[in-house]
Amino acid sequence: MWRNPAEDFTKVGVKYFARHKGEVNCCVFSPDCQILLTCSDDSRLHLWNARSGQLLAKASGHKGPVKSCAFSADCKLFASASHDCSVRIWDTATATCQSVLTGHRKCVETVSFSPDCKSLISGGWDKDAILWDVQCGALVRVLSGHNDAVQSSAVSRDSRLAATGSWDCTVKVWSLLTQRLETTLEGHRGNVTSLCFSVSGMLASGSWDGTVRVWLPRAGSAIFVLEGCGAWVRTLAFSRDGLVLASAAENDMVRIWDMSTGKCIKRLQGHEESALGCTFAPSGALLTAGSVGSSQQLEKWQQDY
């Protein structure tokens, strides 16, 4: 339970990871926060021990820059989206490719697992999102409706809804039960670059317009417009109880927002460059990972509960 949001987050650890040979595009943590997964313009993915910084494995096979990556909720699999127009599903234990998913006609920008580990959603420059069956690697349905490239995606905690964010400045919410469009969320004035669902069903979207919007997706209405980020919002993370939201912007600033009021309660600064990934660990600590050229910087911020 979040009891005292006015207290300081204290930075308790910084680690550096350096092995990629190209710009790092995405950093994600495993659900237990033991592994950091990174992908790069060098066409590879790396798995790291988040505590020690040890490189655990390299995954190679893509023929172009890898733009997005994601873990399954059980951590048995991870997925990647590439400018080679493919999505790949990998075995986490061995870093071997299990499936190559082809269906996009242009570069793929985003990929997300459903929490029940049954489905995968991807999106790219062809303006489409695609729903995939994880077990057999089959294309289930092409979700069409955006007017420009799809750059971000997320799936609700109950695995019933998927959201896609686009260069057309909208967020579309899809039913994974009917595989049809539920609603279109409008209000952003720039590309929608990041999406995140809370445990209670709220949806947060971050944009190039420097704002974060928090929605009730089934109602199609915005609860809060969070302003002041000042730059492209790269990544978002709700706390485990959904009471606070972390946002990281291009200007290296991480902000913590109280979801009962929509107010910014903390500003955290420390990355040399932008944070590309953030998550709340089971302990309540906020972990952020950012790109420094071909390296990554991992920071841990601890909040007392």
Description:
- By secondary structure, the chain is mainly β.
- The protein has one domain (10-302): YVTN repeat-like/Quinoprotein amine dehydrogenase (Methylamine Dehydrogenase, Chain H, 7 Propeller), CATH 2.130.10.
- 0% of the residues lie in helices and 56% in strands.
- It is built from no helices and 28 strands.
- The protein has a four-stranded antiparallel β-sheet, with no helix packed on it. It has a four-stranded antiparallel β-sheet with strand order 2-3-4-5, with no helix packed on it.
- A hairpin with a 4-residue loop joins strand 8 (86-91) and strand 9.
- The radius of gyration is 18 Å and the shape is globular.
What's the short version?
This protein has strands spanning 10-18, 24-29, 35-40, 44-49, 55-60, 66-71, 77-82, 86-91, 96-102, 108-113, 119-124, 129-133, 138-143, 150-155, 161-166, 171-175, 180-185, 192-197, 203-207, 212-216, 221-226, 233-238, 244-249, 253-258, 263-269, 275-280, 286-292, 295-302. By secondary structure, the chain is an all-beta fold. The strands form 7 sheets. Strands 1-28-27-26 form a 4-stranded antiparallel sheet, with no helix packed on it. The chain has a 4-stranded antiparallel sheet with strand order 2-3-4-5, with no helix packed on it.
Features:
305 residues, mainly beta, Methylamine Dehydrogenase, Chain H, four-stranded antiparallel sheet, globular, repeat, WD repeat, WD40_rpt, WD40_PAC1
What is the total domain count? 1
C-alpha-based Rg, rounded = 18 Å
By CATH, the topology is Methylamine Dehydrogenase, Chain H
CATH class type: Mainly Beta
So what's the overall shape? globular
User: What average pLDDT do the residues reach?
Assistant: 88
Number of strands: 28
* CATH architecture assignment: 7 Propeller
Instruction: Please trace the helix and strand order, writing H or E for each element.
Output: EEEEEEEEEEEEEEEEEEEEEEEEEEEE
Helix content: under 10%
Runs in which pLDDT lies below 50 for 5 or more consecutive residues are 1-7
Fourth-tier CATH superfamily name: YVTN repeat-like/Quinoprotein amine dehydrogenase
Distance between the termini: 7 Å
Strand content: over 45%
Biggest sheet details:
4 strands, antiparallel
Structural class assignment: mainly beta
Strand arrangement within the widest β-sheet reads: 1-28-27-26
Number of helices: 0
